[in-house]
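User: tokens in, sequence out, please.
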């Protein structure tokens, strides 16, 4: 398996969302309570850009229609 460095741990503080590109795929890195999570960059309902969403606690809300995602 190949590894790709996409960010440094100090790039994200708790509650941060960071958009990264892996090839042509947009991925969001989210840090919650010190743990790192990676999720797809688009809302699965209306293809909204989730990096514009709001992270509340452990939930990421779509910026267009507030669909909720648990990273």
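Assistant: Sequence out:
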């Amino acid at each position: 398996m190949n590894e790709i460095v996409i960010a440094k741990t100090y790039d994200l503080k708790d509650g941060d969302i960071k958009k990264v590109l892996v090839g042509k795929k947009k991925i969001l890195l989210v840090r919650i309570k010190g743990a790192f999570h990676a999720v797809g960059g688009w809302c699965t309902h209306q293809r909204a850009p989730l990096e514009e969403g709001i992270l509340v606690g452990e939930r990421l809300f779509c910026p267009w229609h507030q669909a909720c995602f648990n990273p």
